[in-house]
Design goal:
The protein is mostly helical. The chain is built from 14 helices and no strands. The radius of gyration is 25 Å and the shape is globular. About 3% of the residues have low confidence.
Length: 319
């Protein structure tokens, strides 16, 4: 029995080695295939990646529930490895795709932005339809003034909105890193929102949530219900408000860097040119994008003339 177990373990180890070799070969093929990939295909792969990741986590949690004396179904182990392979393959493809443009290279230089999320932003934003950063905010459902009326088409892209939340969630996880940029803004904004919440500035919004619980399609705990009845938003809603503000900041920086990597000056933010509410915004309030020097360097490299390939001389044999 012991020898059979050793044989099975050896076979499984060999299979893992073979799987690794196959994945390496696929990664090489992926690099060639990604050159011709379209934006809709990238959006599909990004969505598929998160769906596979979600199922992989579910199976992993299921396997962790088994005790040492219980043996999990072999199919679960096999399926877990299949999900992991698909994740690695998609991540490898997105790694190549996100580095095919200067904007993608800049995004990848930011702490917390990986190949999948960078590819998601690159594939979702259609620059032919973008007039300002606010256009992307509306597309991602980040403009609270845009309402989804009953019987009307959703005025934003749900997948892109989900991508923004996922990116902000990663930013928050990296907030204590030395290279962090956006995670600190999430914490700063959260404190600002909490102070306003305690002052009762969001009383009307809290009552609005209470009156539209069915629209939110969720139930609140007793503690959160007490907060809402007292005229205060829940901690979860405050967190989402901080996420939304940071997502808008990140998108504004993407909009600016899109122009910078092309050697152009980004347009001055609308609120600095025209301030209808007279909030006193000045140029000093402008938050510059991170790694700005890299964006400028990429622009210079793009403008440099590429060396022409040397023509091969043909050896003509004279008779």
């Amino acid at each position: 029995m012991e020898s059979k177990k050793v044989q099975v373990d050896a076979l499984s180890d060999n299979q893992e080695i073979m799987d690794g070799l196959v994945i390496d070969r696929l990664n090489k093929d992926i690099k060639d295939a990604v050159k011709d990939i379209t934006k809709p295909e990238v959006r599909y792969l990004v969505k598929l990646y998160y769906a596979v990741q979600k199922n992989r986590i579910k199976i992993s949690n299921q396997l962790s529930r088994y005790s040492q004396n219980q043996k999990p179904c072999r199919y679960f182990n096999w399926q877990l490895k299949q999900f992991e392979k698909v994740e690695r393959q998609i991540r490898a493809a997105m790694d190549v795709y996100s580095k095919c443009s200067n904007l993608g290279i800049w995004m990848r230089s930011i702490c917390g932005v990986g190949p999948v999320t960078a590819s998601g932003f690159l594939s979702h934003i259609d620059w032919t339809r973008v007039h300002h950063a606010g256009s992307i905010w509306i597309y991602g459902g980040l403009d609270p003034s845009v309402k989804w009326e009953k019987g009307k088409k959703r005025p934003y892209n749900a997948d892109f909105k989900t991508l923004c939340w996922k990116q902000c969630d990663v930013f928050q996880k990296y907030k204590n890193k030395d290279t962090d940029f956006y995670g600190g803004f999430i914490e700063k904004r959260k404190k600002y929102e909490q102070a306003k919440n305690l002052r009762g500035d969001y009383k009307d919004q809290a009552y609005k949530v209470l009156n539209n619980l069915q629209a939110y399609n969720r139930s609140f705990s007793d503690e959160n219900m007490k907060k809402l009845k007292a005229g205060q938003l829940t901690d979860g809603i405050i967190q989402l408000r901080a996420f939304r503000w940071t997502a808008k900041l990140f998108i504004s920086h993407i909009y600016d860097v899109y122009h910078i990597v092309q050697g152009k000056e980004p347009p001055i933010p609308y609120v600095l040119v025209y301030d209808p509410e007279n909030q006193g915004h000045t140029v000093k309030d402008y938050i510059k994008p991170p790694n700005l020097e890299l964006a400028k360097q990429l622009a210079l490299e793009s403008q440099e003339p590429k060396p022409k390939p040397k023509k091969k001389k043909l050896n003509i044999i004279k008779k």
